[in-house]
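Deliverable D2.4 — example input (structure tokens):
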């Protein structure tokens, strides 16, 4: 019996739930939200679609007490920025919200994996780790999984290669300081730099544009339709599947570095092995000095933001 509790039944949460239903991700899906009426309505709506799906998933609106025997608690709850509010003020409000979520989840006896999508996801994941007191491996965030998928799709298009045969990762903060360590990207087995040398129609300037597009994709989507949710919903599904199926897949989730790159406590998008126990191993990259510096700058930024937060009681 595979059970997921989803906290936050807004656009992101419900895009995940809809993807989970269509992908037959689990046996039981519980929807929780401060707006209980909304969670009930969403459960009803999904249940009415069950007859057309291949699954007999049990879907219902619940409470934190339902987390006790869950495998994963997915957190997509959060508030948006108020006019004139700084990012840190928004973060402080999301911290207060997470206190009202993580503490009751832990009190329920939950012993599974926390999977966080709320932004800024690297900081919210670190907050979840601190509030829960769970081990490092059992608290993860979506990190740069979606950014990595976007990058592979765009590179696949550029080189006219199946994106599944483009191997590479977007790492760092899920945000403005994320980047592609190009020295680590290969087309099938061939390093991308060799392909550029052998084939003059491919140019580094174009790859830089692709990296910029990936970094700005969310802004562009928000400008066009107000928010992003389908892509991240499917990314959450992908990470949850790696956990539930004990896959040992490498995904650029947000996970504590635990000494990798000489950094201990920071949560950041980096390639990790994900299985039933969560983020069990970091795949530490041998990057060029410039890339390493970029990664450390991104980590420093995240560390400073986290340390500026007031945890209170
Ligand atoms: P939304 O406003 O549609 O939904 C948020 C939900 O959280 C609402 O249903 C609200 O009632 C609920 N909520 C608020 N306070 C709560 C509390 N104390 N307890 C329980 N539920 C509570 O927002 P959305 O578009 O679904 O976005 C959710 C989060 O996901 C945001 O932080 C957004 O920035 C983030 N996001 C992350 C990524 C990513 O790549 N990680 C991508 C897109 C969006």
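Example output (designed residues):
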């Amino acid at each position: 019996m595979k059970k997921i509790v989803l906290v936050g039944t807004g656009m992101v949460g419900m895009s995940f739930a809809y993807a989970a239903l269509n992908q037959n991700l689990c046996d039981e899906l519980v929807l929780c939200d401060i707006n209980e009426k909304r969670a009930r309505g969403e459960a009803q709506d999904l249940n009415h679609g069950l007859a057309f799906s291949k699954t007999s998933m049990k879907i219902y609106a619940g409470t934190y007490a339902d987390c006790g025997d869950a495998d994963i608690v997915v957190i997509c709850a959060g508030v948006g920025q108020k006019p004139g509010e700084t990012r840190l003020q928004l973060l402080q409000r999301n911290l207060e919200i997470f206190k009202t979520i993580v503490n009751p989840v832990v009190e329920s006896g939950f012993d599974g994996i926390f999977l966080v999508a709320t932004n800024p996801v690297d900081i919210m994941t670190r907050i979840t780790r601190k509030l829960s007191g769970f081990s490092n491996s059992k608290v993860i965030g979506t990190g740069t999984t979606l950014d990595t998928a976007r990058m592979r799709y765009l590179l696949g298009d550029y080189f006219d290669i199946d994106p599944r045969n483009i191997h590479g990762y977007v790492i760092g903060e899920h945000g403005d300081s994320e980047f592609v360590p190009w020295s680590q990207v290969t087309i099938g087995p061939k390093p991308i730099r060799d392909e550029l040398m052998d084939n003059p129609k491919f140019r580094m300037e174009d790859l830089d544009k692709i990296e910029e597009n990936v970094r700005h994709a969310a802004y562009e989507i928000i400008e066009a339709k107000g928010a992003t949710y389908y892509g991240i919903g499917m990314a959450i599904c992908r990470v949850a599947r790696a956990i539930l199926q004990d896959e040992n897949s490498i995904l650029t989730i947000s996970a504590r570095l635990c000494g990798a790159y000489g950094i201990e406590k920071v949560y950041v998008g980096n390639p990790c092995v994900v299985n039933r126990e969560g983020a069990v191993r970091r795949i530490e990259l041998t990057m060029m000095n410039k890339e390493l510096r970029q990664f450390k700058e991104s980590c420093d930024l995240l560390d400073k933001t986290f340390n500026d937060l007031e945890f209170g009681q």
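The first strand starts at residue 3 and ends at 7.
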